[in-house]
Amino acid sequence: MSLFIENESDIELPFPVEGIARNVIDASLEYVNCPYEAEVNLLLTTNVNMQQFNKEHRGIDKTTDVLSFPMLDREMITDFSRLEKHIELFHPETGELVLGDIIISLEQVLTQAEEYGHSPTREFAFLIAHSMFHLLGYDHETEDESQRMEKAQKELLDQLQILR
Q1: For 72-108, what is each residue's pLDDT tens digit?
Q2: Selecting from 3.40.390.30, 3.30.420.40, 3.40.50.2000, 3.40.50.720, what CATH number does the domain 2-159 have?
Q3: pLDDT, mean over the chain
Q4: Neighbours of 116 (CB within 10 A)
Q5: 49: pLDDT confidence band, cut at 50, 70 and 90?
Q6: How far apart are CA 111 and CA 86, in angstroms?
Q7: Are the C-beta atoms of 39 and 97 separated by less than 8 Å?
Q8: What single-letter DSSP state applies at residue 68?
Q9: Domain ranges of the chain
Q10: Contact criterion met (CB below 8 Å) for 80 and 89
Q11: pLDDT at 21 over 70
Q12: 1 half-sphere exposure, CB direction, 13 A CA radius
């Protein structure tokens, strides 16, 4: 798995960011039985930058905790065997499935960890898991989708022993 991390924030989180991100991403891929090695880009940013991204891409002029930019259509990811026909979804040099981009506000990680009464590690891991499931075709537009995604996130974090 290739994970490319860029940190444009001055915030240093009190845990090994790359290690937690890799563990959650790997576990997410296993959770959905992804048969491919994958590539994910992770941008760690500030609330100001996140507000700009949110405004540009979603038309919402306020900050948010995480944004996901999947490379795959939701319908494509439900059946991994269908992806083999789409060589454009695989990195030409590594052969890895390019899943997409995750953007996380480090300020929100710290604020929400305090608000929810758990560690910054748990909040960061949750946001990575949430975003990974978006990259893997999950959503929360309907009640059924929301329940499916929440169940997957909880099972994944429980499996990794990253608890509230």
Answers
A1: 877 666 678 888 888 889 999 999 999 999 999 999 9
A2: 3.40.390.30
A3: 94
A4: 12
A5: very high
A6: 40
A7: yes
A8: E
A9: 2-159
A10: no
A11: yes
A12: 22
